[in-house]
Write a structure and sequence with these properties.
It is a single chain. The protein is α/β, with parallel strands linked by helices. The protein has helices at about 35-45, 55-75, 90-105, 125-135, 180-190, 210, 235-240, 275-290, 295-315, 340-350, 365-370, 385-395, 400, and strands at about 15, 20, 20, 85, 110-115, 135-140, 160-165, 190-195, 215-220, 230-235, 250-255, 260, 320, 335, 355, 355-360, 375-380. Helices cover about 35% and strands about 15% of the residues. The strands form five sheets. Strands 4-10-9-8-7-5-6 form a seven-stranded mixed beta sheet, sandwiched between helices. A four-stranded antiparallel beta sheet has the order 13-14-17-16, covered by helices on one side. Helix 2 crosses helix 8 (about 275-290), helix 3 packs parallel to helix 4 (about 125-135) and helix 9 packs parallel to helix 12 (about 385-395). The longest helix has 21 residues, at about 295-315. Bound molecules: pyridoxal-5'-phosphate.
Amino acid sequence: MNRYKKDFPILNREVKGRPIIYFDNGATSQRPLQVMKAVEEYDTKYNGNPHRAAHVLSIDSTREYEESKEAVAKFIGAKSSDEIVYTKNGSEALNLVARSYGENFLKEGDKIVITIAEHHSNIVPWQRVCQKTGAKLEYIYIDRETGEYLEEDFKKIDEDTKIVAFNHVSNVLGTVSPVEKFMKLAKEVGAVTVIDGAQAVPHIPVDVTKLDCDFYTFSGHKMLSAMGIGVLYAKSELLEKMEPFLLGGDMIEYVEEQTTTFASGATKFEAGTQNVEGAVSLKAAVDYLNDVGFDYIEEHNGEMMEYLVEEIKKVPHINIVGTKDPSKRQGVITFTVDDVHPHDVATILDSYGIAIRSGHHCAQPLGKYLGIPASNRVSPYFYNDLEEAKYFIEKLKTVRGVMGFGS
Ligand SMILES: Cc1ncc(COP(=O)(O)O)c(C=O)c1O
């Protein structure tokens, strides 16, 4: 059995008479006891409104919140915790950049370049920026077989481009974007870079200072933390220039009857009482991931991808979406089953206690481009094991039979 499984009580939950096989980690990961206990300790010892009062519980709560940001800053290689803004999730972090940067600094004639492999959270906010400013949204497309970006489309990053926004790892294709290439091209034309790291941070080490990106976003709940906390990394000089996202308590310096001056740094973007339990949960998740180590996580991912991709390829009538090279995949394998709706595939697998995703994966433009409006996605994490993968393959082979097809 996988050595980390014992830390995740939910994986003992019996579904259809056996412990659940949870292969939907791309949607949200599960939480280890260490993370739950950290939140319990906060709730039983330290809960108070941070940054607000002189009493011990407010001071404790402030410390827990700030220590969380320091741990997260270190985890992703940020220079200071002042470059870390906590949000509700990855989507809110991207919205913050679109609203506070995009809507204020773009104008008609400018361009935003994104890729066709983006999650809706890295598409829709940019559409809004374009509607409000008159800027244009352009896409870098992919090769339908390999999932790699089309070389000629990189020319779209030109002198008019003011923002280049792209995923670090695609939630549908599982491929890692050529970040250095995007960074080089964006820098040559002076465009600001936004990286959606929601599917990368749980799987690979990320160093935002080395990447030298302007913004980097991700969600706590895909990396063992509770839901309700997300992260925006932003270079300090950009945070200083940007308009606040939400207005109210904590994010101010002085408030007069008619006017207000704002706090500086990350605080300017954190209006109102923050999700301290989420911050505590995220710090415990970071500590846990640091203990596991990315050497193990990457090696384990390699083994799971190799097994699953090679075995899925052998099953007749199953089609993998994107690259068939397992070494190019991080965390997710998306596929379709001939003549069977993805919802039926997921329901049949659920009847065996196997949880996978079905649907458009919040990437409808990619689905339309590929001619695959819906598909299935299997996304293991480091606490899954090959036994589970074998059972999944065994049951996947039965799907067409259950639906009444001969093979
Ligand atoms: C690539 C990618 N970006 C952004 C998001 C949005 O994350 P959240 O739902 O936590 O806001 C997701 C979630 O599935 C994702 O996979």
